[in-house]
Amino acid sequence: MEIAWWHWIAGGMLLILLELAIPSFFIIWFGLSALLIGVIMLLAPISLAAQFTLWGVTSGAMVYFWFRYFKNPDRTKAGMSQDVFLGETGLIVKEVSELAKGQIRFQKPILGSETWPVIADETIPAGERARIVAVMGQTLKVSRK
């Protein structure tokens, strides 16, 4: 079985798109690694075993660096004034409308949590970005970004 360079590119794009459907900020590293392998394959073909080994190593390295250096759990803003968070943007994971609460997820914790119930004056479908316009107790009010 032979895997061409464009298979890696297509697989990488699929994984990155999957990240939009499942906002975990984890799958993206495997997709970016697959894109990297596709580019390497375009420049210099390598064996199938080397492709998968390189993909595994680069994926693991990207995940490691994400958790080790970029995603620092000690950088929460828990305990700070709610006004500090106005304007922060997150990803709507459950559709919000004028009549129904939704849910938003942030890349880093806001007021001690990564996910929050939200309300809005407009319908914002899942997968779109929104920004905080008010903090109302245990609920955030958001608008489209």
From TrEMBL:
GO CC annotation: plasma membrane
Keyword entries, A-Z: Membrane, Transmembrane, Transmembrane helix
Ranges where the NfeD-like C-terminal domain occurs: 85-143
Gene3D superfamilies to which the protein is assigned, alphabetical: Nucleic acid-binding proteins
Keyword Transport part of the UniProt annotation: no
Record carries keyword Thylakoid: no
InterPro entries: Membrane_assoc_protease, NA-bd_OB-fold, NfeD-like_C
Transmembrane portions of the chain: 12-42, 48-67
Subcellular location: Membrane
SUPFAM superfamilies reported for this sequence: NfeD domain-like
Membrane topology: Multi-pass membrane protein
Protein name, per record: NfeD-like C-terminal domain-containing protein
Species per Swiss-Prot/TrEMBL record: Sulfurimicrobium lacus
